[in-house]
Design a protein that fits this description.
single chain, alpha/beta, Rossmann fold, 2 domains, seven-stranded mixed sheet, 14 strands, 17% strand, globular
């Protein structure tokens, strides 16, 4: 979902510098504390493990740009933890999830991280690419706590502790444009529009569209926006005037709905494809609903919540039983996948009797073919690469569970296979 809001590079750098100073002070105070210790059965433990409990952190957005998806991510993770504990927990420990809502505010995100970091083993959730980037230096330099973010910026690659699950936004966008070329008639010489958020999310996605455009002989017409820009009339007008044949949108659900709705109302009949965080099924009940079902597509790092797999069907049944009044969306898949991956790392770490931060991170690095049942195999062994290069192409459809149907199964385009993020 990410999942990003506007944070300038300078602001992110300033936040990181302030946090690094605060972190050094905190660590200095903690020096001489417990450190690693032996738990039951000779299992080594450290931060985030106390008594009979392993505590994981979740920095989410329940009141900001991605409030709907943030709620789904968090509830899915709470459901996973409940089921894990019912099955006996990990190494004799119960797992707890400590949640903070940052409302997609950079100051709240950083302060939430500062508060939780000393108390948790790691983070099963951290929504917002720029917020994760703002604390990356501290995570890599001193905290060394595993973070599985709901963020897919390529800027997060390379860290041994921040592990992107699924294809990064640039690779996802390459796969999205590949779909436009193969399925929607975009060909050499055409112009495509790209509407994108300022910051890590949008810039990562733009790198992908520019890369495949150069290879395919296309021209990218850019429209940079902020998360506070909710009316896409000006962007549609500019792209229509430029004669683009398709549009990529790397923004939030609200911006995607506005873009597609305004385009339909003005007779601008072109396909629009968004990154995985640019849709929520609640949009289908708005005035933009009919246009979304006709001309909108979404590139996703996995099959949707309504997928026809045993694992998806079980998750739907369990989630409905736990939260009968809430909407099903792909935030559930993202949250469940991250929590399950963290859980798998905990189990591997338990087998080696090392539930310290270092032990859990090392355990995740050993997982090379993790299959949670949503169409994509995850390989966590290389911190410099995303865990997958595949994307599933979805289309809004209010008649199916979760409001999204599959129009192209998980696939990595040839351009995505050959692409190196950041090169």
């Amino acid at each position: 979902m990410s999942t990003t809001t506007y944070v300038t590079r300078s602001a992110a750098g300033a936040l990181a510098a302030l946090l690094l100073v605060a972190g050094c002070s905190s660590k200095a105070k903690d020096a001489g504390g417990d450190g690693d210790k032996a738990g039951a059965g000779g299992v080594r433990t450290g931060e985030g493990v106390s008594g009979k409990t392993i505590t994981l952190g979740a920095l989410t957005d329940m009141t900001g740009v991605y409030a709907t998806l943030g709620k789904s991510v968090t509830q899915a993770q709470q459901l996973y933890v409940k089921q894990l504990n019912a099955a006996g927990g990990v190494c004799g420990y119960k797992v707890a999830l400590s949640v903070r809502d940052h409302g997609y505010d950079p100051q709240k995100a950083v302060s939430g991280y500062t508060e939780l970091e000393p108390k948790v083993l790691g983070f099963a959730q951290f929504i917002g690419s720029p917020f994760v980037a703002a604390v990356k230096q501290r995570i890599d330099g001193q905290d060394k706590a595993l973070v599985l973010p709901q963020a897919w910026s390529s800027a997060l690659l390379g860290s041994p502790y921040i592990r992107v699950i699924g294809s990064t936004y640039d690779i996802e966008t390459i796969n999205a444009v590949d779909f436009l070329i193969k399925e929607k008639g975009i060909r050499k010489g055409d112009r495509i529009g790209h509407v994108y958020f300022e910051g890590d999310y949008g810039e990562s996605a733009l790198a992908g569209s520019k890369h495949i455009a150069e290879e395919a002989g296309l021209t990218v017409v850019e429209q940079k926006i902020k998360p506070t820009d909710n009316d896409m009339t000006a962007q549609v007008t500019a792209l229509k005037k430029a004669g683009v044949k398709a549009v990529v949108i790397s923004a939030g659900p609200r911006q995607a709905a506005s873009l597609v709705g305004v385009a339909a109302a003005s007779g601008f009949d072109v396909p629009v494809i968004g990154n995985n965080s640019a849709f929520a099924p609640q949009l289908l009940a708005t005035q933009a609903g009919p246009a979304l079902t006709k001309n909108y597509y979404v590139a996703s790092p996995s099959l949707p919540i309504g997928a026809d797999t045993p694992q998806a069907q079980k998750l739907v049944a369990d989630y409905r039983a736990a939260y009968p009044k809430d909407t099903l969306d792909n935030g559930i898949v993202a949250g469940w996948t991250a929590a399950a991956a963290f859980g798998e790392a905990l189990k591997e770490a338990c087998a080696t009797k090392d539930l310290t931060r270092q032990g859990v991170d090392k355990a995740l690095l050993s997982i090379d073919s993790y299959d949670i049942g949503f169409g994509v195999i995850q390989n966590f062994t290389d911190p410099k690469a995303p865990s997958s290069r595949e994307s599933v192409i979805l289309q809004p459809d209010k008649s199916v569970t979760g409001g999204m149907k599959v129009v192209r199964e998980a696939e990595a385009s040839e351009a995505a296979k050959a692409y190196t993020p950041g090169a």
